[in-house]
Structures are given as structure tokens and as C-alpha cells.
Amino acid sequence: MQLFVTMTSPYSRLARVLVIEKALEDRVEIIAAKTRAPDSPYYKINPSGRVPYLIDDDGVGMEDSQLICAYLDSLDGQPRFHDPQRRSDWAYLRLEFMARNMCEGVAVWTREMSRPEAERSPTLLAHEQARGRRMADVFEDEVGGPLLQGPPRMAHLILVAALDMAAKRGFGDLTVGRPQLAAWECAISTRPSLQRTALP
């Protein structure tokens, strides 16, 4: 299998984490994709140009981190991060999708900041920063509950990816002034899969 990624994408990071967590490194080749370039040869592989993108053993391609992570987690028949019992656990799914939306907001802010300064939208930047702070306030309370304790699931991985991206891309450290969130992030970040895939 081939997994096309960029090292700065939090969504690529999630797929890379699953490769490590599920001991698939001998089975999945990680390939750096060139994105956001008009002449990129990657577009012949994945016309949308998004990452991550997985080509399975049958040569079939799939995109979107949510789909790819679920697929990788299922390969051994023993999913750990997409527990089938969680499919109707609305309390857990609420947290997973809140974390995903937080991650998306930070990613939108980061993409906007990568544009030339004259082309940036101050309204959009302010909106995403305010959203990120509000969501961090919510997670300050949520990380102490049972759903974000214990063995990690996708909600854990997505939340830590969002927090790390915010801290390293200029958005701001969303754990400052939120001691429970800071302690939670510090604890989960010791996982080898997260250390090995930390954003540069």
C-alpha cells in the first residue's frame, strides 16, 4: 500500500499515526506528495490533490483521513480507534466530531495565514481564533471525563493533532490557562506514534 502525505497536514498526521499504532510500517509506504503546485505529478495520482491519499493492495485509491484511518484500523480485524461499539455512542461521537471541527478551524486559519498578507481575511482569521478558544474552553472540561481518559480513540488523536498544530503554526497555544487540557496533552503526547509524527 502507498500512503501519500505532507508532513505539515494534521490529517496526514492522523493517518501516519494509525500506520504506527497498527504496526503497518512494513506494509504501508509513506510517500511525500507535492501539493498546491499547478504542475504537481501528484494530481495524476489523486486529482483532488488532497492528502492523505491511500492506494490499497488492489490499487484502489481513497482519500479523507476519516475513511483512511478507519480502513487502516480495520485491517487486522481488531479495530482499536474505531470501536464498533462506539458507532451509536453519541456522547463519544459528539467529542470526536467536536475535535475534528476544532482541527478544521485551526487548519483553515493556517491556510489563510499562508496567503500573501494583502489577500488574508482579517474577519476569517478572527473568527477561527475565537472559535478555537471557545472549543479549547469546552475541552478543558471534557478531558477530565471518562470518554477522553483511558485507551485512546480517534477523538484523542484528533484533539492532540489540533492542539499541536495550533501551537506550532502561530495560532497560539490553546492549553495556556487551561491546566487540565495542558496536562492531558502532555500525557498523551508521550505516545511514540505522536512523538514520531510531531509537526515540524
Topology:
Layout lengths: L1 E4 L4 H12 L7 E4 L9 H4 L7 E3 L5 E3 L1 H10 L15 H24 L8 H21 L11 H15 L10 H10 L3 H5 L4
Parallel strand pairs: 1-2
Antiparallel strand pairs: 1-3, 3-4
Helix pairs in contact: 1-3, 1-6, 4-5, 4-6, 5-7
Describe this structure in words.
With 200 residues, the protein is of the alpha+beta class. It folds into two domains: 2-74, 3-Layer(aba) Sandwich (Glutaredoxin); 84-196, Glutathione S-transferase Yfyf (Class Pi), Chain A, domain 2. 50% of the residues lie in helices and 7% in strands. It contains eight helices and four strands. It has helices at 10-21, 42-45, 65-74, 90-113, 122-142, 154-168, 179-188, 192-196, and strands at 2-5, 29-32, 53-55, 61-63. A four-stranded mixed sheet has the order 2-1-3-4, covered by helices on one side. β1 (2-5), α1 (10-21) and β2 (29-32) form a beta-alpha-beta unit. α4 runs antiparallel to α5. The radius of gyration is 17 Å and the shape is globular. The model has no long low-confidence stretch (mean pLDDT 95).
Number of domains: 2
CATH fold type of the largest domain: Glutathione S-transferase Yfyf (Class Pi), Chain A, domain 2
Query: How are strands sequenced across the largest beta sheet?
Result: 2-1-3-4
Low-pLDDT segments, ≥5 res = none
Largest sheet: 4 strands, mixed
Which architecture of the largest domain per CATH?
Up-down Bundle
Count of strand segments: 4
- C-alpha end-to-end distance: 25 Å
Strand content: 5-15%
